[in-house]
Amino acid sequence: MIDKTTKTARTSSKKGKKFYITTAIDYVNARPHIGHAYEKTLADAIARWHRLIGDKVWYLTGTDENAQKNALVAKEKGIPVAKFVKDNSNIFEDLCKKLGISNDDFIRTTEQRHVKKVQEIFKEIFDNGDIYKGKYEGLYCTGCEAFVTEKDLVDGKCLEHNREPLKMSEDAYFFKLSKYQAQIQKIIRDGLIIPKEKGNEILSRLEGEDLRDLCVSRTNLEWGIDSPIDKRFKIYVWIDALSNYITALENKEDEFWPADVHVVGKGINWFHTVIWPAILLSAGYKLPKNVLVHGYLTLGGQKMSKSLGNVIDPFDLLKKYNKDSVRYSLLKCSVFEDSDYSEEILINRNNNELADKLGNLVSRISTLAERDGLEKCDNKLLTKLKLSEIEEFMQGFEIDKALGLIFGFVDRINEFVQSKKPWETHDKKVLYQAVDSVKAVAILLSSFIPETCDKIAKTFGFEIKYSNLAKGLVYKNIKKSEILFKKIESAEKNELKEEKIKGGKEKLNKAPEGIISMADIIKYDDFAKLDLRVGTIKKIEDVEGADKLLKLEVDVGKEKRTILAGIKKFYSKEELKGKQIIVICNLEPRKLKGQVSEGMLLAAVNGDESSVVLLSPEKKIDSGSKVQ
Ligand code: MSP
């Protein structure tokens, strides 16, 4: 059923490969911000995808704790450094849990497994003759934790952290970075860096200057890992931090090294694609296959960062909103470019895509499937799923584009359901195709919004397995789904609503109590969704076994509707014949006493329901006229 290109794409992907993925490890000088949440979620979607297609995945994330900047903030706060970094590291780990990150390990660089192995790697480089003693005279940016030159500064300040570097003059050890320049250029040309443009940036820097050797020690520091070759020195924190990708593996090193992809932000591209390969070449390790360099999340076009103080706290969002809404809103951001992000963007993506497109579709077809059941057939709708393109995007880490294509298919399913009107036709084959297509969507989306996809799978009774994607399954005992995504009021609208409630409450103070519940205020847009029309009652019949109901045939313009209404006690058949009433035409059909009612009519009901009066247009008007 799925097109041939798709089949080729699946069978050509080698099953059961190992796949080792890492994120950068975060400094713990402050709480995590949304940029950290983005990187972890991005890597998580990739890791989950590879598990889904059958790879053996190892996903590592963690915290970079030996940096001088962590120690500086701890001192400022008067907290022992070890306690400070541990407490903050716990917050990063907690973020992973709250975001539903499926990491297999979480490394802290103060752990013994890390410290011991870093010293071994440093010693290996030294023993290979690539570390020599000298004197460092120059600048150091504690923001970047990097030795910088005047060339890296604008108006004397580091652009990344908007601060002046420290002047340093100290005895030091140097690593022969220059020795590896040609090899590094080659591996970058061979495609180490994704996307290509980010590779070209590094290449043009390398082609324009000869690499200088790198200072790899710091002196006069109390915090950091001791150098194994000279105890007066600490190991430069980037050598320590980068090594985490190997130190964390312990006895899994043979199985998982080299990394298949390091996921990092654009600001630390150089460290991962120049310094890290040189260390590995010197110490005799294989090189990572890819470094995925993602763009930054910006706020109003400005870089978001702890040092600039304009950050969005992911915990605030996770407290207010569904985890999958946060994840989806992040994963929709462009992987390769910078993307503006805000709470408003999250709300729009939740409302317009998750709630309106996916949530509504699942709710609609599960309700109809519960009512009418399904009839298995060839699912022609699946030919509209661009699976081979989705797989290609995922393989190339363009996951925002893959997500776009999956939601394109959700649009196709919605169009199909809308045009086939199974709520009128009761066509079980149409419903089957819709459900079977939603199954494919849930399997594909399970890497992005896993909790929601588990709920969808439970509703329709299938297993999230890649091999189920193109297979027509049998779906039984379907029950109406819970609401997957609630619509969120925007912050701006919330303020307006507050005002309205305040104004409303003031008015209410003067009205008799208990007439209107302000909690039930709805948005204009919600009201406008009602399709209210004038209908003319053509036929009236009793309903067997029902003493309150009448079955009406109502002309609503282009069509006649059957409506079951509980008005038998209040109107005679003669009074009703030819009467014009107001009908809600776009309500989901309902079954009453074994008969389907295709709408509702408006009536005024008094307090004890002893009186019911139908609403009627004041003058005669065409059937089907809109009420607005
Ligand atoms: N500790 C180093 C990384 C060492 S990796 C061996 C570091 N830490 S960090 O906390 O500053 O950043 C962690 C990750 O978050 C980096 O990949 C960084 O690029 C990323 N981001 C920081 N700000 C970001 C945004 N505003 N948007 C997206 N990612 C961002 O660098």
How would you sum up this structure, described in words?
The protein is an alpha/beta fold and 628 residues long. It has three domains: 4-320, 3-Layer(aba) Sandwich (Rossmann fold); 323-468, Isoleucyl-tRNA Synthetase, Domain 1; 511-614, OB fold (Dihydrolipoamide Acetyltransferase, E2P), CATH 2.40.50. It contains 22 helices and 27 strands. 5'-O-[(L-methionyl)-sulphamoyl]adenosine binds next to strand 2, helix 2, helix 8 and strand 14.
Supply database-style keywords.
single chain, 3 domains, OB fold (Dihydrolipoamide Acetyltransferase, E2P), elongated, Rossmann fold, 628 residues, Isoleucyl-tRNA Synthetase, Domain 1, disordered N terminus, alpha/beta, seven-stranded parallel beta sheet, five-stranded antiparallel beta sheet, binds 5'-O-[(L-methionyl)-sulphamoyl]adenosine
The CATH C-level class name of the largest domain: Alpha Beta
Please name the CATH topology of the largest domain.
Rossmann fold
Number of DSSP strand runs: 27
Bound molecules: 5'-O-[(L-methionyl)-sulphamoyl]adenosine
Tell me the count of domains.
3
CATH superfamily of the largest domain: HUPs
What is the SS-derived class? alpha/beta
The biggest beta sheet is recorded as:
7 strands, parallel
Share of residues in strands: 15-25%
Q: Calculate the terminal CA-CA distance, rounded to whole Å.
A: 46 Å
- Compute the CA-based radius of gyration: 32 Å
Portion of residues within helices: 40-55%
